Amino acid sequence: MMGFYLVVALACLVLIAVSWRRSGSMTNYVMFTGAPIVWVLLGGSAFIAGMLERSDPETARDVFTGGLIGTGFVLVVLMRRSLRAHKDDHQD
Question: What does the buried/exposed string (b/e) look like for 16-44 if buried means 16 or more CB atoms within 10 Å of the residue's CB?
Answer without folding.
Answer: bebbbeebeeeebbbeebbbbbbbbbbbb
